[in-house]
Specification:
The structure holds two protein chains of two kinds. By secondary structure, chain A is of the alpha+beta class. Chain A is built from six helices and five strands; from the N terminus they run E-E-H-E-E-H-E-H-H-H-H. Chain A has two domains: 75 residues, Ubiquitin-like (UB roll), CATH 3.10.20; 75 residues, DNA polymerase, domain 1 (Orthogonal Bundle). In chain A, a hairpin with a 2-residue loop joins strand 1 and strand 2. The longest helix of chain A has 18 residues. Chain A starts with a strand and ends with a helix. Chain B is α/β, with parallel strands linked by helices. Classes of the chains: A alpha+beta, B alpha/beta. Bound molecules: FE2/S2 (inorganic) cluster (2 copies). One FE2/S2 (inorganic) cluster (FES) sits at the interface of chains A and B.
Chain lengths: 155, 739
């Protein structure tokens, strides 16, 4: 079947089975490989994208459901929060292997959009669905605090 | 320590020269325009060029490109190794570009690691540093000589600042790019010696806290290319259904339903499973699920049940009549223990653990006639060439390997099973590339786990509490018997990596380490820190058991056992100070552990609490002091310690693979539990290098002390309850509390 799907502000017409997870449509049809496969069962967060602004695991989101929403991926997440998060990530050299980091960043940006000054507890809740096998957790936490502080000063 | 090698340099052409040390040569070329997109921090090796002729090129625009012989899996090595060249070359780091080495062991093999091109064992910096630093120094001398000719002044009047040669008395200077473009190489070349290496106080980059990893920017915007991201024109996707039990073969294959899945192009029977090739990942997965295969039932792995075997291993460890292969013998430990006043005897064990690299196993291959091209996140390009050649029936020199970034390695990506999948399927559809991506379930079930192991430690103390003899028996299967049979045989049936870390630097008059191999058929592999991850668990806990038996402080005992080891004492004293070791905490316990593995000294203190009702352990904080010898990138060393400590916590508390009748019970992150953000301890790291000491390994050094520090903390918190079996699951903790 053909689906019109809005990704990063652009509408694409995709010919695929409606049950195909959005993840593979993004990666292989649209060549947006920044979104990663890590588990396929919503356990690791590597595939996190924003669906109408909400962080969502694209590995379990069928194309037919995604087709009615606005999708944003790591390649074009924008805005002050995204900028602050990316800046903090680079300043602290957060990534190691980097494979989980697209998902981490998508979750962190969504967190800062809902909570201006997240506490450690807020961060735990928002980020514990994102596994990092290189265990960059402590730098992720610090970078989220950095980004929040920087946004606070900017405001 | 790798000795500083004496290089020999000779002119190769008008524009290039070769620096040779101990059989390995580094070619340096001047004046070429590097084949790199501007601004790309990391580029693949030049297309179609199986053996680029230079490791280092200095372009006419002054861009210095340096090949990284080791692969990047998050350990920062593609920054570290080129940085060492840049340091001695006195290059401006912002004008350096790093290129990933192609597969070519003859050119890029690690001189300190059997000459093979395999990134692992925390061996890269230790193996390559002397060669790279000498090449940097040699190249700087040649730039100076070239500049002397251009400026018509003696070399002795010249000096360098980053990327420039200066002639202070006339105020003239030349950029490295200008020299590379116009200089005529002197013949004979000046020859660098160890005296030309910078003294440590002149280092600009080594030890700097402002150098950032080159791979980071691409990892925050989705542009980093891992193996799984490789996209090629005309590419097909592949999946492989593997036998539920290792070494079984498909006997009957009913693929009627699988073939009907739209987009499926080929079903490929393999000796070890059934391959599917199709137009999309999703199609291959659906088809894989629809295969009906009956499997042979002859594999001896069907008898493999991990908990039962572990009981057997423990019994073997205790049965001192069973002789092991001697791994290390100093004095007569058994006789010394026989005459001891006090004997401490304990069994330590660990279950299998899985790698679960965040990027699952995957590879892309293209077979054209007798040529193979591979794109893969591999730790071992040399091995990859060999295995791929075997599948296709060609020779390794016809196999080109493009190494991508690795989304985690931890030893798993030194294996070749995922490469063999891709090459086997690509062979079946010759002319079109095939990308195989393992499902996470397959990645866990068909991992090469860390060995299941039991250790028996027996220590004798005299009346004053001095250690008189130490016996350490390690009972496990072998990794080398499968992966490097000649090495295993040459060592007389001893496996260096399985018993790694059992040898320590504590002073004991008699020490005996034995290895008792248990061959039960299940393939086991290299995991983060390999043997050190469990041998130090046993050793460091037993040291605390000795301290408890003597009624003395565990930190004090370690310092006593390391009297003549200043670097060891320094990290232990530092970490004790950081953790305020002597300050009692309400409801929490502190435990200490130390390791000198991988050429680095690392001491940690863990602060834990325990829920006695549920048996759950919480690790609140870990302090760490690390002496890596030379701290090339201190920030990155801190990061690697955090990786080791956090995973060290996770594997001590949760990680567990159970095999029953040859079938792995866990399959995804819902059943194979790894540590998450909310469970990660707070961590404080002090990097305390020792000037003038050799370069130590860093990748794995942080993990071994964490588990024993946790166990030792629990023992101190509970008045001596010992946890001796990884992982410390709540059930095991409660069982230990009940005894
Ligand atoms: S791949 Fe979607 S959550 Fe793991
Ligand atoms: S950076 Fe490697 S998995 Fe997170």
């Amino acid at each position: 079947m053909s689906y019109a799907i809005s990704v990063n502000g652009q509408v694409h017409h995709v010919e695929d089975d409606g049950q195909t997870p959005l993840l593979w449509v993004l990666r292989d049809t649209l060549k947006l490989t920044g979104t990663k496969y890590g588990c396929g069962v919503a356990q690791c967060g590597a595939c996190t994208v924003h669906v109408d602004g909400t962080p969502t695991r694209s590995c379990t989101l069928p194309l037919e459901v995604a087709a009615s929403a606005r999708i944003t991926t790591i390649e074009s997440i924008e805005g002050v929060e995204a900028q602050a998060i990316r800046g903090a990530w680079v300043a602290r050299d957060v990534p190691q292997c980097g494979f989980c980091q697209s998902g981490q960043i998508m979750s962190a940006v969504a967190l800062l959009r809902t909570l201006k000054t997240p506490t450690d507890r807020d961060i735990d809740v928002a980020m514990s669905g994102n596994i990092c096998r290189c265990a960059t957790y402590n730098r992720i936490r610090a970078a989220i605090h950095d980004a929040a502080a920087q946004l606070g000063t900017a405001r | 320590m790798t000795p500083i090698l004496q290089p020999q340099s000779r002119v190769l052409s008008r524009r290039s020269f070769l620096v040779t040390t101990g059989g390995l040569g580094i070619a340096v070329a001047f004046g070429s325009v590097p084949d790199l997109a501007s601004g790309a921090a990391m580029a693949p090796a030049a297309e179609g060029d199986f053996r680029p002729n230079a490791w280092i090129t200095i372009g006419v625009d002054g861009t210095v490109s340096i090949i990284s012989p080791a692969v990047e899996m998050g350990q920062g090595i593609t920054t570290t190794l080129p940085l060492l060249v840049a340091e001695e070359l006195d290059a401006d780091w912002s004008r350096v570009r790093v290129v990933q080495a192609p597969s070519d062991a003859e050119t890029y093999g690690n001189p300190g690691f059997y000459g093979i091109q395999l990134t692992g064992g925390s061996e890269s910096t230790r193996g390559y540093n002397a060669l790279l630093r000498m090449t940097g120094a040699q190249t700087r001398l040649i730039l100076l000589a070239g500049a002397a000719g251009m400026l018509n002044v003696p070399v002795s009047e010249l000096e360098t600042e980053p990327h420039r040669v200066l002639h202070p008395s006339s105020g003239r200077s030349l950029d490295y790019g200008e020299i590379a473009a116009r200089a005529v190489l002197p013949d004979p070349l000046p020859q660098a010696t160890e005296a030309d290496l910078k003294q440590s106080h002149r280092w600009r980059y080594i030890g700097s806290r402002t150098i950032q990893r080159i791979d980071v920017p691409s990892k925050v915007n989705g542009t980093a290319v891992f193996g799984i991201d490789v996209q090629l024109p005309d590419m097909l996707y592949g999946a492989v259904l593997r036998a539920p039990v290792q070494d079984e073969r498909p006997e009957t294959i009913d693929d009627a339903e699988a073939r009907d899945v739209p987009g499926i192009t080929h079903i490929v029977p393999l000796s070890y499973g059934v391959g599917i090739v199709g137009e999309t990942v999703e199609a291959t997965r659906r088809a894989k699920d629809l295969l009906n295969v009956t499997w042979s039932t002859t594999s001896r792995v069907r008898n493999y049940s991990s908990q039962r075997l572990l009981d057997e291993y423990r019994a073997v460890g205790r049965d001192l009549g069973q002789q092991g292969v001697p791994a290390h013998t100093k004095g007569d430990a058994e006789a010394a223990i026989a005459g001891a006043t006090t004997v401490i005897e304990a069994d330590y064990m660990s279950d299998h653990v899985a790698h679960a690299t965040m990027e699952p196993m995957n590879a892309t291959a293209l077979v054209t006639g007798d040529r193979v091209e591979i794109w893969a996140p591999t730790q071992g390009p040399t091995g990859t060439q060999g295995f791929a050649a075997e599948v296709v029936g060609t020779t390794p020199d016809k196999v080109k390997v493009n190494t991508t970034l690795l989304g985690g390695g931890f030893g798993r990506k030194a294996e070749a099973d995922f490469i063999i999948d891709a090459v086997s399927l690509a062979k079946a559809v010759e002319g079109r590339p095939v990308k195989v991506i393992w499902s996470r379930e397959d990645d866990v079930r068909h991992d090469k786990f860390r060995p299941l192991e039991a250790q028996h430690v027996k220590v004798g103390l005299d009346a004053e509490g001095n250690i008189v003899g130490w016996r350490h028996r390690i009972v496990a299967d072998s990794i080398f018997a499968r992966t490097l049979p000649p090495v295993f045989e040459e060592a007389g049936g001893h496996d260096d990596v399985v018993t790694e870390g059992a040898k320590f630097n504590y002073t004991v008059p008699a020490h005996q380490i034995e290895y008792l191999r248990q061959d039960n058929g299940l393939a086991i592999g290299f995991w983060f820190a390999v043997g050190v991850g469990y041998t130090r668990f046993a050793i460091e806990c037993v040291v605390d058991e000795i301290a408890a038996a003597r009624g003395i402080d565990p930190v004090a005992l370690r310092l006593e056992l390391l009297k003549d080891q200043p670097r060891a004492r320094k990290v232990i004293e530092t970490v004790a100070r950081m953790a305020e070791w002597d300050r009692a905490r309400d409801g929490r316990g502190l435990g200490v552990a130390y390791s000198d593995a991988f050429g680095s000294h690392c001491a940690q203190v863990a602060e834990v609490s325990l829920n006695r009702d549920t048996g759950a352990i919480r690790v609140h904080k870990v302090w760490c002091a690390i002496d890596p010898g030379v701290a090339i990138q201190p920030l990155h060393i801190e990061a690697m310690m955090m990786t080791g400590i956090t995973n060290g916590t996770g594997h001590a508390l949760f990680e567990q693979i159970n095999v029953i009748d040859g079938e792995v019970q866990e399959s995804n992150f819902d059943t194979y539990r790894v540590i998450r953000m909310s469970e990660a301890p707070e961590i404080e790291v002090a990097v305390v290098p020792t000037p003038g000491s050799p370069f130590g390994g860093i990748g794995q050094a942080g993990l071994p002390p964490t588990g024993p520090a946790i166990a030792n903390a629990v023992a101190r918190l509970t008045g001596g309850v010992r946890l001796r079996h990884y992982p410390f699951t709540p059930e095991r903790v409660k069982a230990a509390l009940d005894i």
